[in-house]
Write a structure and sequence with these properties.
Elements (H helix, E strand, L loop, with lengths): L1 H9 L24 E6 L8 H14 E13 L9 E3 L2 E3 L7 E2 L1 H10 L2 E6 L8 E7 L4
Parallel strand pairs: 1-2, 2-5
Antiparallel strand pairs: 2-7, 3-4, 6-7
């Protein structure tokens, strides 16, 4: 939490009185509001698949109808790729942190949470891929 406060201060946003939350249950509803955008930068790279689904379910609950979650992940060439992958200075794994997943796996996880995924262009120095995650249309 202290590191978060330092980051907020470093970019001159302390006067905005931001609300910070530490939760291993992704309790975004505790903020008591709906969001237009959410960010998960270098976050899914440290989570098992079931935790990613849980995070997506909770995020889906607090996104506005046209809201977007931008999230990064380390990409593997195909689903179930169990070999280590070197991404510059970082080596990722399928069964231990830091993780890599295929785009198809990320799409499947989002689908379980009622969300869809589109890759988004960005230039990340650690070679992570960006995803734009949105709610699926409700029937």
């Amino acid at each position: 939490m202290e590191a978060g406060k330092l980051e907020v201060a470093a970019v001159g946003l302390s006067d905005k009185e931001p609300n910070l939350l530490v939760s291993d249950e992704f309790e975004l509803s505790r903020f008591g509001t709906q969001f237009d955008y959410a960010l998960a930068i270098s976050f899914f790279t440290h989570l098992y698949m079931n935790h990613i689904v849980h995070c997506l379910v909770e995020t889906n609950r607090v996104l506005k109808a046209n809201g977007k979650l931008y999230a990064t992940f380390f990409e593997s060439p195909y689903s179930g790729y169990s070999h280590p992958i070197v991404h510059g200075e970082i080596t990722t794994n399928y069964v231990s942190d830091p993780f890599h997943y295929s785009l198809e796996e990320m799409k499947a996880l989002a689908s379980v949470a009622g969300m869809g995924i589109e890759p988004d262009d960005w230039c990340n120095p650690r070679r992570q891929k960006m995803l734009c995650i949105t709610q699926l249309a409700k029937a």
